[in-house]
């Protein structure tokens, strides 16, 4: 009996996956060192499985996410600290890429600066790595730096939802890494929080 030709990209991907496992070129048992929002096989092979392809179509991941995840995996050799981290999302604003990560143990800022520099050299654009944190102020401080936050107030809206109003002193407004509206959209994209950035009175 002649072997059936591949009927879909999924068939090709599944065949390659099984081939790699048989030849022990990739270990699929257990969790890989760096947590990423896509399959490791898809990232390394360049072929997206149905699940990852659906995520891309729904907007749960972006092409930039795939590129950054691949770069971070490559950087694990130089920076083994990344093995204790999770990559969540990357968002580009004019002239700057924000990369959100979370780590199970503290990584010195000097290491993050080196990783940012390596990614900046690759992307030919400034890169800022921010760590996901339960503290909204700590998270926003990383994004808005070098501008300093004067205060954060919670505003409850008539429909029961709420938003945070972030006050920045007049002298620090010009230090923001991007226009306030761009940063507000960025924050919404990263953590789904409604934030308005205004000048402190």
- In whole angstroms, how far apart are the ends? 80 Å
Q: How many strands appear in the DSSP assignment?
A: 6
Overall pLDDT level:
86
The amount of helix comes to 40-55%
Structural class: alpha/beta
Describe the structure.
The protein is α/β, with parallel strands linked by helices and 201 residues long. It has eight helices and six strands, in the order ααααββαβαββααβ. The strands form two sheets. A three-stranded mixed sheet has the order 1-2-3, with helices on both faces. The termini are far apart.
Supply database-style keywords.
single chain; 201 residues; GMP Synthetase, Chain A, domain 3; 3-stranded mixed sheet; 6 strands; disordered N terminus
Offer a concise description of the structure.
This protein is an alpha/beta fold. The protein contains 8 helices and 6 strands.
Compile the SSE list and pairings.
Layout: H1 9-22, H2 40-45, H3 50-58, H4 63-75, E1 85-93, E2 96-103, H5 109-123, E3 126-131, H6 136-144, E4 149-156, E5 162-168, H7 170-173, H8 180-191, E6 195-199
Parallel strand pairs: 2-3, 5-6
Antiparallel strand pairs: 1-2, 4-5
